Amino acid sequence: MKTRIITAACIFAVIIPIFYVKMVYGINHYIYILGFILTVLAANEIINVKEMEKPLPLEIHLLTYLGIIYLAFADSFVELFNMPEKYNINPMPFTLIIILLVMILRKNYKLNDAAYSFLTIAYLGLAFGCLVNFFLQPNGMYALIFIIIIQNITDSFAFFVGKAYGKHKLCPDISPKKTVEGAIGGTIVCTVLVPIYAILLKDKLNFPFGNSVILIVVFTFFLSVIDQFGDLIASVIKRHFKVKDYSNLFPGHGGVLDRLDSILFTSLVYTYLLDLVSKLM
C-alpha cells in the first residue's frame, strides 16, 4: 500500500503541473510530449506481453509502433503544423495489407498473431488519438478530467463496495476479484457525484445533447458502465497471457496500460459517440 501511495503521489506531481500550464496558459508542448511518451510506452507493453508467448517478427515491431503513433497523432500533426489535409492518410488499409503479407511470409506468424497485431494497433491508436484530441481542443481538458473523475470514482467505490458487500462474481474468468455488487455500487456513486462537475462546467464541456441535467446524469451513468468494460478489456489480454500487469513501470500500479485501461476505452466511446450525436442532431 505504501508503494502504491508513493507512486501515485509521484504521478500526480508530474501530471498536475502539466495540466495546469495547459489549462491556464494554453501551453500544449508538455502535455503533447507526455502523450507521445505514454503512447510509445503503451505500444511497447502491448508488444512485450505478446512476446511472453512467442517472439514477433521485427517488421511487426516496427509496424506496431508506427501504426499506433500515426493513428494517435496524425490529426494533430496536420493541425499543429498547418499541413495540407491530403497528408492525413488512413493507415489501416496499409497496416492490414502488411500484416497479411507477413502472415504469409513468416512461418511462425500465424492468423491469431495477425489478428492480435491488427486489433491492438487499431484500438490503441484510435484510443490514444482521442486523448490527443482532448489536448488540442479549446476545452478538451475539461472533458478529459470528466473522464478521469468517472474512472477514479467508479473504480474506487467499486473496490470498496465490493470488498464490503461483494458476494457475486462479475466476470470470474476475466477478473476474479470484481463483483456485481461492487460494479453497481461504483456506478451508483459515480452517477450521483460526477454530474455535479459536469453541470458546473457544462459550458466548457458543451455536450451536443445540450445542458439537460437528466441527460447529463444518464450520460455519466453510461460512461461509468463503459469505464468498467474498459478495465475488463485490458484484463482479457492479461488473462490470456497469464500476466498480472502489463509492466512494472509504476511500482504498485503496473504499467501505462494498467493505469489508462479504463480511460482509453471511455475516451474512445466518449469521442465517437458524441461525434455521432452531434451529426444526428
Summarize this structure briefly.
A two-stranded antiparallel ribbon has the order 1-2. Helix content is 77%, strand content 3%. By secondary structure, it is mainly α.
Protein described:
By secondary structure, the protein is mainly alpha-helical. The chain has helices at residues 2-25, 29-51, 58-80, 92-105, 111-136, 140-165, 180-200, 202-205, 213-241, 256-280; strands at 169-171, 175-179. The chain has 2 domains: 1-136, no CATH class; 139-281, no CATH class. It is built from 10 helices and 2 strands; from the N terminus they run ααααααββαααα. A hairpin with a 3-residue loop joins strand 1 (169-171) and strand 2. The mean pLDDT is 92.
Structural class: mainly alpha
Tell me the major beta sheet.
Answer: 2 strands, antiparallel
End-to-end separation in angstroms reads: 48 Å
Helix content: over 70%
pLDDT averaged over residues = 92
* Unreliable residue stretches: none
Percentage beta strand: under 5%
- Radius of gyration, in Å, reads 19 Å
Number of helices: 10
Give me the oligomer status: single chain
Output the helix-strand order: HHHHHHEEHHHH
Order of strands across the biggest sheet?
1-2
Categorize the overall geometry.
Answer: globular
Strands, count: 2
Number of domains: 2
